[in-house]
Write a structure and sequence with these properties.
By secondary structure, this protein is of the alpha+beta class. It has one domain (2-156). It has helices at 12-22, 39-53, 57-72, 126-135, 149-156; strands at residues 2-3, 6-7, 79-82, 85-97, 105-115, 121-125. Helix 3 (57-72) runs antiparallel to helix 4 (126-135). The longest helix is centred in the middle third of the chain and has 16 residues, at 57-72. It is globular.
């Protein structure tokens, strides 16, 4: 980890989390994809990007939750979820587990949002929303569920 140019020693907990996020035990391909940066570097870079865009992780996650809640009402079909946006939710049996060492068990649900005018779309799982809200983690580059903060904000706000 780094802090204003100072290299800090990584704790055993940090190493364990890094190992879990890079493995395929909880998610196919892992949560880090082909990203060579450390988890803390990924989180810091995305936090910087959010700040540049004028949003907090809490604001983004809350908007994602609002959209998912409205889209659930469509029972798997497209519904209007905002001005010029449609969304739908697909659910499967089972749970997704947060890789951080706390109790985080979330519905296996995928929300897809599409901007009607441009056709641009983005998707996320309930786990993505949790990872952003609680950990500031948008996943590593190349991960199947990596969400680019700029694209997410452009799509949902």
């Amino acid at each position: 980890m780094t802090q204003v140019g100072i290299v800090m020693k990584e704790s055993p907990e940090d190493r364990k989390l890094e190992e879990v996020l890079r493995s395929s035990r909880l998610a196919a391909g892992g949560f880090m994809g082909h990203d060579n940066r450390s988890v803390s570097e990924v989180i810091d870079a995305d936090a910087t990007e959010l700040s540049r865009l004028g949003f907090t992780k809490e604001q983004v996650a809350e908007r994602m939750r609002q959209i998912t809640k409205v889209a659930i009402s469509g029972l798997g079909t497209w519904v209007q979820v905002g001005d010029g946006m449609e969304g739908k939710v697909d659910e499967a049996k089972g749970w997704l587990i947060c890789p951080w060492p706390h109790k985080g068990k979330l519905a296996k649900r995928i929300t897809v949002v599409k901007v009607i005018e441009t056709g641009e779309s983005i998707r996320w799982s309930d786990l993505n929303t949790h990872l952003i809200s609680e950990h500031g983690f948008f996943e590593g580059k190349g991960s199947d569920f990596r969400i680019e903060p700029r694209k997410l904000i452009r799509t949902i706000f």
